C-alpha cells in the first residue's frame, strides 16, 4: 500500500490525521486509522468531514454493516 501511495504522491498536505494526496487533477484522501476512540477524541477534526464531503467513495478497513449489525 505504501509503495502504491508513493507512486501516486506529488504533493501531500498534513495538518491533521487526514492527508490529501494529489497528482494532477486526481485526489486521494487518507485518514489515519482509529481502532478505539475515547470520548475525548470526538468530534473528529474538521478535515475528516471535508474529506468525506469531497469524496465520491469512502473505503473502511472493516465491514461497517456487519460491525453495526451486532453479528
- What percentage of the residues does DSSP assign to strands (E)? 15-25%
**E-strand count:** 3
Q: Main β-sheet: number of strands, strand sense, barrel status?
A: 3 strands, antiparallel
Structural class: alpha+beta
Mean pLDDT: 75
Helix content: 25-40%
Question: What distance separates the N and C termini?
Answer: 29 Å
Number of helices: 3
Oligomer: single chain
- Give the spatial strand order of the biggest sheet: 1-2-3
Q: Which value, in Å, is the CA radius of gyration?
A: 14 Å
Q: Using the alpha-carbon principal axes, give the shape.
A: globular
Succession of helices and strands: HEEEHH
Question: Would you kindly provide a written description of the structure presented here, covering whatever features stand out?
Answer:
- The chain is α+β, with helices and mostly antiparallel strands and 71 residues long.
- The chain is 30% helix and 21% strand.
- The chain has three helices and three strands; from the N terminus they run H-E-E-E-H-H.
- The protein has helices at residues 2-8, 46-53, 64-69; strands at 11-13, 18-23, 26-31.
- The chain has a three-stranded antiparallel beta sheet, with helices on one face.
- It is globular.
- The model is unreliable at 8-14 (pLDDT under 50).
Amino acid at each position: 500500500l505504501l509503495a502504491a501511495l508513493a507512486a501516486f504522491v506529488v504533493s501531500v498536505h498534513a495538518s491533521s490525521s487526514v492527508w490529501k494526496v494529489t497528482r494532477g487533477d486526481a485526489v486521494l484522501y487518507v485518514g489515519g486509522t482509529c481502532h478505539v476512540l475515547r470520548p475525548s477524541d470526538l468530534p473528529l477534526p474538521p478535515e475528516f468531514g471535508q474529506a468525506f464531503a469531497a469524496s465520491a467513495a469512502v473505503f473502511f478497513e472493516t465491514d461497517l454493516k456487519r460491525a453495526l449489525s451486532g453479528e
